[in-house]
Amino acid sequence: MPSQRVLVIGGGIIGAASAHYLSEAGCDVTIVERKKFAGACSHGNCGYISPSHVLPLHGPGVVTKTMRAMLLPNSPFSIKPQFNPAFLSWMWNFTRNCNVDSQLASADRMAPLLKSTNALYEDLLTNQGLEAEYKKKGCLFVFQSPEGMEYYAKTNELLMDRYNVPATRYDAEALVKLEPALKPGVAAGGWHYEMDAHVRPDIMMKSWRKILESKGVRIVEDCEVTGFDLQGGKARAVKTTQGDLTADVFVAATGSWTPFFNKLLGTAVPIQPGKGYSLTMQRPAVCPEIPMIFQEHKVAITPMTTGYRIGSTMEFAGYDDRINQKRISLLKTAAQLFLKDPYTTPIEQEWFGWRPMTYDNLPIIDQAPSMKNVWIAAGHNMLGLTLGPVTGKLVSEAIIGQPTHIDVTPYRLKRFKTKQKPLSPYAATT
Ligand SMILES: Cc1cc2nc3c(=O)[nH]c(=O)nc-3n(C[C@H](O)[C@H](O)[C@H](O)COP(=O)(O)OP(=O)(O)OC[C@H]3O[C@@H](n4cnc5c(N)ncnc54)[C@H](O)[C@@H]3O)c2cc1C
Questions:
Q1: 42-83 pLDDT, tens per residue?
Q2: 380 lines ligand 1 (CB under 6 A)
Q3: Which of 206, 273, 292, 372 allows an S-S link to 354, with CB 3.0 to 4.6 Å?
Q4: In sequence order, what are the beta bridge partners of 311?
Q5: Which residues of the chain have pLDDT under 50?
Q6: Is the CB of 31 within 6 Å of ligand 1?
Q7: Helix, strand or coil for residue 85?
Q8: What is the CATH number of the domain that holds 49?
Q9: For residue 256, what are the domain limits?
Q10: pTM above 0.90?
């Protein structure tokens, strides 16, 4: 059989990982990127590989809590009022999903992805030479209030009992002993998820590019895909700003931009850009060893080997690409509250990324309804860095016609028309 020519649209982590496993499977792969490879959401994110993040954003009471929090000046969430039917429909569906059944249904479908991606990362790092400043120090979920700590205890129990995700509980003093970069007397306590790890995303993507190119993957930058050329119900080529590019199979790994292809893909992809920010700088003198999330503030700290990052916040403001200084200052304020040496100057990079948010927290891995040789691999929400390898592997298995190592039915587009039930806990954890 001659090798299949696959054209991957989008040079973020999902495109890179898809190209990686497709190339390993013997395909002839090209990545086409409208700007620079790994220059969008996969560049300045917090770098967490997070098996602990099995639970989705949508849970019981989330809408009320978020609305109340948004009235406060330091809320980590913000929604710009917008009369955009796609956004309003997304919000409506998100709200409908804020209940225990939907929360567990999404988590049950997330669990096998997280388990598989962890193993794939280990292989990439140990056997394939992926350099990423990888460290397995776990992740601390830090709570300021004793009520927050107690309330979270139930969630922690659920994570352990249903998803086999263990954590160690630390009360105030023990937490500061474990992580002396924390100020004493501020946090009520925290939970340490030892199985989590972290990387420096830009370094990792640079190294991944080298690996891809050494495998013969072509990366075409500054080349925007503007449409598809169809022949007999299939895509023959993509139209780009550098001319037509033909292939046998296409993968749209276009993150938050995927809905711009709705008409061509023959479906309304329910992805909204969820803007988050990060600040990158040199490491402070008293630098944390363990990455941590200040849970009430939703601010994350990533101590990297060659730098230090404060990140997060969630802003639904459409495709507004301005940096909102008010939201940047929330990152510094939270770090100042909890850490002895919260940040350094100068700030080397003020960054934002659009997380490709689906309302059920699950990615989309499916064929386009209008063209069977076009696959969609997008919608990785707050976990795209974590889920890159497993998505790439699934995309490659599906395209070369192998049985996928995880059933991809839950990630198909048709789920958006049906209500999903929680799975048996046994199915989720085995
Ligand atoms: C502040 C912040 C912190 C985060 N922290 C973490 C974390 O710690 N752990 C984690 O797992 N995840 C994290 N995430 C989420 C993660 O960054 C995203 O889920 C992930 O980067 C999405 O990858 P992607 O490849 O789908 O999208 P992107 O990286 O955005 O890549 C999509 C690419 O497609 C290209 N493209 C779009 N349209 C076209 C076109 N027409 N033609 C050609 N190219 C096109 C774009 O230019 C872009 O480069 C974080 C996100 C943010 C914002």
A1: 999 999 999 999 999 998 888 888 888 777 778 888 898 888
A2: yes
A3: 273
A4: 278, 300
A5: 427-430
A6: no
A7: helix
A8: 3.50.50.60
A9: 5-429
A10: yes
